[in-house]
Design brief:
This protein is of the alpha+beta class and 254 residues long. It is built from two helices and 13 strands.
Length: 254
Amino acid sequence: MLQKIITLAAISALSGCTLMDGEKYSRATIDAINQSENKLQTRLDTVNNEIARQHGQIRELSTELARLNAALVTLSNNQTLLLEERRAEKAVLTVQQDPQGETRAAFPSQTLVLGSVEKVKIDAIKTQIDARVDTGAETSSLNAMDIQEFERNGKTWVRFHINDSAVRAEDKQWIEAPIIRYARIRQSSTEKTERRSVIKLFIQLGKIRQQTEFTLADRSEMSHPMLLGREFIQDIALVDVSKTYLQSNQQQVN
């Protein structure tokens, strides 16, 4: 009997040790997991902080880039305005008042002076039309109507009538010329651009005869059928905007 009691006591003691060892193992495992989670959370916080810092740097760089782009646009606009002003200075006549109150021109007497409107002869139709001399426009243009493009010898040509209210419809003549290129023209009153054909024609203004580029547009609101821009005027003439037809009565070259 005593032996049985001793045996049971021994078994109970061994079972207790096993349970205690298992509890210690479980607690150690949980502690290890908690430590790993803490380390992972710390690393995750570090990564998140680094991402936030990089996002801040990206925002600062984007702001700086936008500022530089705006400065570049402003610089480009200023350069364009300066170039336009310099070109205009070459073409525009400065009119001054002398002490007697009479208007005189501030340029040498041998310089060719154009009025704001002149008579221009177009060689292709041997006809004179009114042309507005505009130092504010860079290119020259024709108020064209009935514009038709066609092929000739593998090249694109255009035919048109000049929209001139001074000429009767039955007297209008066709002008044909090869298209040398197309130009995008933006009007001052709108942001939209218009695609126009560009041609070359020989014209004569007073004693000046030269080949000139013209853009073609059906613009009935134009005050004159032809506009002569700075590309025609520069280096050959000045403009007195207070007068008209200064060269139209000059002897023309045949």
